Input
Amino acid sequence: MHDIDCTIIGGGIVGCAVAAELSSRGLTTVLLEMEDGLGRGTTSRNSEVAHGGMYYPNGSLKARFCVEGRRLLKAFCERADVGYRECGKLIVATTPDEVPELERLLALGTANGVEDLLLIDGPALLRLEPDVKACAALHSPRTGIVDAEGAARAWAHVVADHGGQVMTAAKVTGLWPAAGVWKVEISAAGPGRHEGWTHTSRIVVNAAGLWADRVAALAGVDVDARGWNQHLVKGNYFSIASAHHGRINRLVYPVPPRHGTSLGVHLCLDLGGQMKIGPDVEHLATDPRDSGFDWRVDPARRDAFCDGARRFLPWLEPDDLVPGMSGLRPKLVATGFHDFVVQREDGDLAGLINLVGIESPGLTSAAALAREVARLVEEMDAA
Ligand SMILES: Cc1cc2nc3c(=O)[nH]c(=O)nc-3n(C[C@H](O)[C@H](O)[C@H](O)COP(=O)(O)OP(=O)(O)OC[C@H]3O[C@@H](n4cnc5c(N)ncnc54)[C@H](O)[C@@H]3O)c2cc1C
Output
């Protein structure tokens, strides 16, 4: 395979959105995913919330791409017939001293361009959600839930519709700059298939999610010097017994914890009406990329989950909870805020675009990240 315009590494929601954007601009595009299906990484291990965008510092990429990305994601899902429901979200203050935090989020969200945010008092909350106990809430009616894997697959169809190639079970194992193009080495393994090849590509986009720092290193980026080593922080979920399904109609979040590592253990709904709570924050002793992934959820965490959620769901009992799924956040700092990294390389590495630290709200932001990559490609071509 020779003379491709763009190779995208990673068939998660971000890589699929990027490949769709670039192929629809007339660039020859190959999307490479090492698993035997699309969206099997973090894209299928998260809360599937299309976030509003009220948590992130004004002017940050997270704020910009989340607000723009949600509008684009919703419009795409409607066009492509992918599951999406604008169910709305409540961030609840369980004590009066948490209300100023809601006011801060209202101001920040408004500055970030989040639509229709409204601070409501206890009685108004009770009318919306009689089974949620809190003294006030920030209501974000535009927050939604989405079939994330479905969106990734639908974007891959857009790639194919524009003549691009989508290859699964195709792992990038080498990347070398060579006279103005990138040499890409791929090893492909699948049922009845074991082969490898190299092709050349003018542009390479690293959208490898949990592996993005390692793929950048493969291409020759000094990730230590850039501070790009991703720390994988686990988030666990517990499912809520089906007897309670339908009791609550909106996503319910606490005020965000001060450590800034997560938005706090919240009540999630999926498109099928199932309820779960999570994710918590579990710092791992070893890097699972070296020691092996263990997605199991420790049942011993149940009581801590129940105690946390009972602050706003007082009817929840420990026996209502069963261990659910887990996911991993690719964090650039162990605690606190760090923005997305979206970087076009130059010099010896020209032609490479790295997306690193694409944690939440990466799913919401996918289409906006894709537009940003397309802008960087245009910038590169104009240079
Ligand atoms: C617990 C949790 C909850 C979250 N909740 C939300 C939420 O509610 N809303 C939200 O907006 N965001 C949320 N996020 C974040 C969101 O899930 C991610 O930002 C998003 O899924 C990242 O997508 P991605 O395509 O970058 O990564 P991935 O989905 O991980 O895709 C990367 C792909 O690259 C492939 N790959 C890696 N290396 C190679 C290689 N060498 N060759 C070929 N392929 C390779 C991998 O197999 C993988 O499929 C959450 C994350 C977690 C962990």
User: Anything to note?
Assistant: The mean pLDDT is 95. The longest strand covers residues 193-206.
